[in-house]
Amino acid sequence: MSFVSYAMILAGGLGSRLCILSEKRAKPAVPFGGKYRIIDFALSNCVNSGIFDVGILTQYRPLSLRDHIGIGRAWDLDRRRGGAELLQPFQGWAETDWYRGTADAIHQNWIRVEDREAEHLLVLSGDHVYRMDYRPMIEAHLARGADATVAIAEVPREEARGFGVVDLDREGSIRGFLEKPEVPPSGNISMGVYVFRTSALHAVLREDAERDTAHDFGRNILPAMVGSGRVLGFRHEGYWQDIGTLDSYYRANMDLLRPEPPFPLEDARWPIFTPSTEFPPARIGARAEVRASIVTHGTIVNGTVERSILFPGAVVEEGATVRDSIVMGESWVGPQAELRQTILDKRVHVGPRVRVGFGEDLTPNRSCPEHLSSGITIVGKETRIPEGTTIGRNCRISANLIEEDFSGDTIPSGGVMERELNVAH
Amino acid sequence: MTAIPEVLVLVLAGGKSDALRALGRIRTASALPYGGKYRVIDFTLSNCVHSGLTRIGILTQYAPLSLHGHIGIGRAWDLDRRDGGVRLLQPYVRQRETNWYRGTADALLQNRNVIEDAAARHILVLSGDLVYKMDYAELIRSHEEHGAALSLVTVPPPSEEPERYGFVHADRSGRVSALEEKPKRSGAGAVSAAIYVFRARDLMERLRRPDGGPDLVKDVIQPMIEDGARVFAHPHRGYWRDIGTVDSYYESNMDLVRPVPPLNLYDPDWLIYTPSEDRSPAVLGPNAAVSQCLISHGSRVEGSVTRSILFPGVHVGAGAVVEDSIVMHDTRVMPGARLRRAIVDKRVVIGSGATIGDGDPTPGHGSAGAPTSGLCVIGKGSVVPAGATIGTNTLIEIGVSERDFPGQAIAAGSVIRPGVSARMAPVVRAAPGGTT
Questions:
Q1: Which chain A residues are Cβ-neighbours of B34 within 8 angstroms?
Q2: Are A291 and B286 a contacting pair at CB < 8 A?
Q3: CB contact under 8 A, B290 and A280
Q4: Torsion angle of alpha carbons B46, B52, B55, B60, nearest 10°?
Q5: Minimal Cβ distance to A34: which of B278, B281, B286
Q6: Which residues contact B390 (CB under 8 A, 6 or more apart)?
Q7: Could you report the average pLDDT of every consecutive run of 10 residues in chain A (425 residues)?
């Protein structure tokens, strides 16, 4: 039996619709669900499916991802043969350059595929939240002798607009792709999970490399393969969430807090692995009230927390209230502060009596109204909000601000707070 | 040149502690789960690596599997090293004179090759069953400055059970004149913290004496003092607890949920390391009421939990009430159950509506072997039937099934043992890959 033992994960994307969460890190490195990074799902799916040889293609801001993955220990990917390898663009060979797209990234690293003499290759995306055993898909791919097999999720038809929609025939073969169609013909979308026959993929990649395209799997490679070979669809049942926008990111996190979560993080048969922190257990104080929330090691709660997710080392001081919010690692919410529908990145310092997500005014964000209009306010990494400040809804507060950067004590809904770059010396 | 001369650390972690009852039978005290995610030995090992000591042998003998599984190759402490690192030293068969370790001194003597091969100037002898944070570098520095043959750490006498400790008599300079075991009177002074640093050649010379006995205190340390060797006391001022009894184990855990805990686990400069488990974050449900607790990953709380410690994977059902209790890994407290002043070992099921610790939570004397200080202890893997009422001071042994309960109401001070069916089956039902 032919066997698929090598996976490549596309993890280089810019993810600009995630706003300042992906300003300093690649999208797959964005923290999720209390202790995870988004790429943990694809990596854990690999090892749980018995695939222990994984190349991770990085380009945009890879440092956070590289620190997270390290030598792959958390996934048992620190191995003599195979393991986890980060594939960053490099110089020195005639054809190497920055990756021009997802397909170009794999094309430039084709030597990795050749070295393995693999007949088939698994290609994944690093920015989706899902559990999937890749083995049944691989078996279907092999059994039907396909050149490419594409995992398909079904979403409500109106939501399919943001994805690559798949046109399936009755036998499950793919007749065509529609990338982000205005009027989707169905809710069958490509999950960005592919199995390829390496020879067929290589032929298309070589051709694509010579042409002026986006060098993108969804837009260029798969449509080309539909013309020349046999492309199958494989339906994935179960939860699958693309973390493409701030709203979808927020919603996927909040889904975890439902009484019967559609995607339970706890599943002994299919654990999600991630490097652990060395913090002690969560400490819940005498006056704390914590409900419908996720807490992690190192969190300390002395205030009120409802429908929220606290990452490792997050601290909520006495009298503070955190509702419908995501508080990332080592952020501090001072006494009497109030957070509502707020995402705090790591190590944010919220001074005493600060209010974030305040009021009912839902004016969309001034600088990115298309991504920040549902009421969420977001605060970037390590910013320090001075005592008593009030920040409205749909606000975007940049990373690394200090108290002196805040000129007034109120930022109205839709506001943007950035450091003045043209400061006179 | 480094501030610390070369030191070999030997950790004594092989003892059986009967006073820990059902908690201590399946594991040595050093391997006891502690503080929500730790084992007791994590404190000793973390102290070592924070003190820059990375050449460590752990002497094990009694029920060591739990400890071995926990330590592995020492990765959690960065002790998987090319040079030094951690080694587990279990008794082994030799061509001549094969023996179990007959005592602490004998355990060291049987490992004389390890001591000699290390060629260390000093041997730091530690106990794996103590909870404390300490920089051994200071101890070793003062040991060197005194030119001591032995330096022993002292702590103020604990108020509870002072008879468990050895009183140290020292002059102003710290020179020790006597170590008095089980003194008749208690009170002022200092007791030995069971933390010793020996000059290696002095230790070996003592251990090798043909008339030497097996016990480190009685047969090595006390004779050294009596013979006038340079023995110095080194006072430790921070938190220090010996958790060798059910009561001391319980109190030390409860110290962690006090409003201002006397032992700070959150100090970023002195974190306590332990192997992590791949568990999802803790979930507190919409009706959860949690206060003064430590909650670990994999826990799920739908009921009320107060002044308690939940280890990984504990589920507390809707309407259940847990107070002043320690609940270990993967135990299920079913809906409506009540737990008060209980220590519940791993993988126990407390049936719906059952009550543990019913009645007056004061000391009392019941059957032989039952707790006497108002606590209930439930051994690993036991099942308490739905609706049962268990009085205070009750011991439910390891692997007790529902059929082993004589009735729904168990009087205070009882001991429930596993029946015939359980004794024929393996007593400890471990999950694949799990440790005790």
A1: none
A2: yes
A3: no
A4: -20
A5: B281
A6: B354, B355, B356, B357, B358, B376, B384, B396, B410, B414
A7: 80 74 84 96 97 92 88 91 88 76 91 91 95 96 96 93 91 90 93 96 94 91 88 95 90 94 92 92 97 97 98 98 98 98 97 97 93 95 97 96 92 90 44
User: Quick check: B295 and A295 CB within 8 A?
Assistant: yes
CA B308 centroid distance within chain: 18
Q: Are A240 and A191 in contact (CB under 8 A)?
A: yes
**Domain architecture of chain B: domains with CATH:** 7-255 (3.90.550.10), 283-424 (2.160.10.10)
Assigned CATH class of A7-255:
alpha beta
Q: Which amino acid is at B264?
A: N
Query: What per-residue confidence (pLDDT) applies to A420?
Result: 65
**Cβ separation of A266 and B280 shorter than 8 Å?**
yes
Size of interface A-B (CB pairs under 8 A): 101
Taking the C-alpha atoms of residue B336 and residue B388, their distance in angstroms, rounded to an integer, is 12
Side-chain-side CA neighbours of B218 within 13 Å: the count stands at: 9
Q: Look up the ipTM and state it.
A: 0.87
Residue B132, classed as helix, strand or coil, is strand
Q: Is A254 on the interface with B (CB under 8 A)?
A: no
What tens digit of pLDDT does each residue of B120-172 get? Answer: 999 999 999 999 999 999 999 999 999 999 999 999 988 877 788 899 999 99
Q: Scanning every residue of chain B, which has its alpha carbon at the shortest distance from the alpha carbon of A35?
A: B281
Domain boundaries defined on chain A: 7-255, 277-425
A288·B291 Cβ contact <8 A: yes
**Contacts with B, A 293-322, CB within 8 Å:** 293-298, 300, 309
Chain B residues touching A283 at Cβ < 8 A: 266, 293-294
Task: Choose which CATH entry (3.40.718.10, 3.10.450.50, 2.160.10.10, 2.70.98.90) describes domain A277-425.
Answer: 2.160.10.10
Least CA distance to A314: which residue of chain B?
B266
A419 touches B at CB < 8 Å: no
Give the contacts of B176 (CB within 8 A, at least 6 positions apart): B152, B168, B169, B170, B225, B231, B232, B233
Residue A36's identity, in one-letter code, is Y
Separation in Å, CA A58 to CA A86, A99, A249: 7, 9, 21
pLDDT at B424: 44
Would you say B302 and A259 are in contact if contact means Cβ atoms under 8 Å apart?
A: no
With CB atoms and an 8 Å threshold, state whether B296 touches A292.
no
Spatial CA neighbour of B340 closest among B289, B391, B296: B391
Q: Which of A35, A73, A75, A266 should one mutate to test binding to chain B, selecting the residue with the greatest count of B CBs within 10 A?
A: A266
Q: Which residue has the tokens 């390496």?
A: A198
Per-residue pLDDT, B436: 62
Check CB contact under 8 Å for A280 and B36.
Answer: yes
- Rounded distance, CA B308 to CA A216, Å? 54
d(CA A236, CA A335): 46
Cβ contacts of B255 on chain A, cutoff 8 Å: none
Nearest to B259 among A278, A286, A289 (CB): A286
Show the DSSP H helices in B344-435 as ranges. 420-424
- Residue B246 has phi, psi (to 5 degrees) of -55, -45
Angle, vertex CA A285, rays to CA B377 and CA A33, nearest 5: 95
- CA-CA distances (angstroms) from residue A204 to A187, A199, A220, B231, B322? 27, 9, 9, 79, 63
d(CA A287, CA A195): 53
Q: CA B278 → CA A48, A293, B430, distances in Å? A: 13, 19, 17
β-strand partners of A291: A306
Tell me the three state secondary structure of residue A108. Answer: helix
Q: How far apart are the first and last CA of chain B?
A: 43
